[in-house]
Specification:
- About 40% of the residues lie in helices and about 25% in strands.
- The chain is an alpha+beta fold.
- The strands form four sheets. A six-stranded mixed beta sheet has the order 13-14-12-11-9-15, covered by helices on one side. The chain has a five-stranded antiparallel beta sheet with strand order 2-1-7-6-5, sandwiched between helices.
- A hairpin with a 5-residue loop joins strand 1 (about 35-40) and strand 2 (about 45-50).
- It is elongated, with a radius of gyration of 29 Å.
- The relative contact order is 0.09.
C-alpha cells in the first residue's frame, strides 16, 4: 500500500504521513454514524471519529476504554472479529453510564485494528420502559379482572340471598368501573406518549377548558362536599388541542379531589406568564412527601397504593398530564407540602406568542353542591 497524504477535517484527527491507511477504509470511516477508531500495531490511535472523542472513548492518541483495548489485542493476535457490549461513564448530565455495542476487526496484515462502537443507551432505556409498562399493565388489569371473577362466583353461590347479591353486585360495578377507567387511560396515554407535537393545533380558550374540566369532576367533588373554584385571569388562550387540555385538567382536578378531605376547596386558576399561560390546580389535601415528588409523573407510580386503589385511581393520571404538557411544548410542575396541600401548574405556549388577559368582569366561578 502507498502512504496517503490526508487533510484534517472537523470530524477526524490528522494522522502522520508514514501511517498507512487504505483510501477505501478512510472513506468509509468518514461517513460512519457510530464511533470509529483505528489502532496501529502499538495500540496508538491513528484515526478517531468525533463521536469517539465526544463519548470519551479516545483521548489524544490513546484508547481510554480498557475493555476495548483488550478486545483489540485479542483481534490482533488471532485475526478473528469480535463483538461485545461495554459500559462507560455517562457523558450527559444525570446519565450514570453509556452502553455500547462494539465490533472489533483486523485491518489488513499490518497489525491495524478497527473498533466500532454504537451507542445503545437510549434503546436499552426504551426497552426497559416497555418491559416495565407491560408488566405494570398486566398487574393492574389482573386485579379488577380477578376481583370480577371472584365476585361473580360469590353471587352465584349466594343466589338465594337477595341482600348478598345486591351487595356483591355493587362491588362488581365498582371493579368494572375501575377497569373501564384503566382502559380509557391506557388508550389516552398510548395516543399522546410518543413525545410528538399536537398534530392539528389551534387556539384554545382557557376559560372554556377549565369550566369543562370542572363540570366533568363536579359529581366526585359533590360526593365529598368539596367546592371547585375557577379564578385568575380571563380571556387567555393557548396554542394546542382543546380536548387534550381538558383531559389534563380533569386528571389534575380528579387527583386533587381524591386526595383532599371533605368540606375543602380545589382552586383552578390561570395567569399570563410572558409567552406562556400557566394554569394551576391547588388543593388543601394531604400533600406529597418530598421524596416522592420526582416520581409522581411516572406511569403507575402511587405515593399510597392502597388509598389510590380505594379511590379508583389508575396510577396513569399524572403521566397523562405530563405527556399532554410535552405534546404542547410545555411542562408541568408541582409544589407540595405534607399536610398543607399541593399545587400542580401547567405551563403552555400562549396563542399568538404572548399571553394577554382580558379584564375580569365577573367574580371567580364557584361550583357548589
Amino acid at each position: 500500500m502507498l502512504a496517503i497524504r490526508r487533510q484534517t477535517d472537523k470530524d477526524e484527527d490528522p494522522e502522520p504521513v508514514d501511517d498507512m491507511l487504505s483510501p477505501g477504509v478512510a472513506s468509509v470511516l468518514a461517513v460512519l454514524p457510530s464511533s470509529a477508531v483505528v489502532l496501529d500495531r502499538d495500540d496508538r490511535v491513528l484515526r478517531a471519529s468525533s463521536a469517539a472523542r465526544a463519548f470519551g472513548l479516545v483521548r489524544g492518541d490513546s484508547l481510554m476504554a480498557a475493555e476495548l483495548l483488550a478486545l483489540a489485542r485479542k483481534v490482533r493476535r488471532d485475526g478473528e472479529i469480535r463483538e461485545s457490549e461495554i459500559e462507560t461513564a455517562g457523558r450527559k448530565f444525570g446519565q450514570e453510564s453509556t452502553t455500547f455495542a462494539v465490533r472489533v476487526a483486523p485491518l489488513g496484515s499490518t497489525g491495524q485494528v478497527l473498533v466500532l462502537a454504537e451507542d445503545q443507551t437510549e434503546r436499552r432505556m426504551v426497552e426497559a420502559v416497555r418491559r416495565d409498562f407491560v408488566a405494570n399493565v398486566s398487574h393492574e388489569l389482573k386485579t379488577p379482572v380477578g376481583a370480577l371473577s371472584l365476585l361473580a362466583e360469590t353471587i352465584q353461590d349466594a343466589a338465594d340471598d337477595p341482600e348478598a347479591v345486591t351487595r356483591f353486585a355493587g362491588r362488581m360495578q365498582h371493579e368494572a368501573a375501575r377497569l373501564t377507567y384503566l382502559v380509557q387511560d391506557l388508550i389516552t396515554l398510548s395516543r399522546i406518549q410518543g413525545g410528538e407535537p399536537v398534530p392539528t393545533p389551534g387556539p384554545v380558550p382557557i376559560d372554556a377548558a377549565v369550566h369543562e374540566a370542572i363540570d366533568r369532576c363536579n359529581t366526585k367533588a359533590s360526593a365529598k362536599d368539596i367546592t371547585l373554584v375557577a379564578g385568575g385571569a380571563e380571556g387567555l388562550q393557548i396554542w394546542g388541542d382543546d380536548e387534550l387540555l381538558v383531559t389534563a385538567l380533569r386528571n389534575l382536578i380528579d387527583n386533587a379531589v381524591a386526595y383532599s378531605p371533605e368540606h375543602t376547596r380545589v382552586v383552578v386558576s390561570a395567569r399570563p406568564a410572558g409567552r406562556s399561560v400557566e394554569v394551576s390546580v391547588s388543593d388543601q389535601g394531604i400533600g406529597i412527601p418530598e421524596s416522592a415528588q420526582e416520581r409522581i409523573f411516572e406511569r403507575f407510580f402511587r405515593v399510597d397504593a392502597a388509598r389510590s386503589r380505594a379511590t379508583g385511581g389508575t396510577g396513569l393520571g399524572l403521566a397523562i398530564v405530563k405527556h399532554v404538557a410535552v405534546a404542547h411544548g410545555g411542562e408541568v410542575t408541582v409544589w407540595s407540602k405534607e399536610g398543607s396541600g399541593s399545587t400542580f401548574t401547567l405551563r403552555l405556549p400562549a396563542f399568538g406568542g404572548t399571553a394577554i388577559a382580558a379584564p375580569r368582569t365577573t367574580s371567580p366561578l364557584e361550583v357548589t353542591k
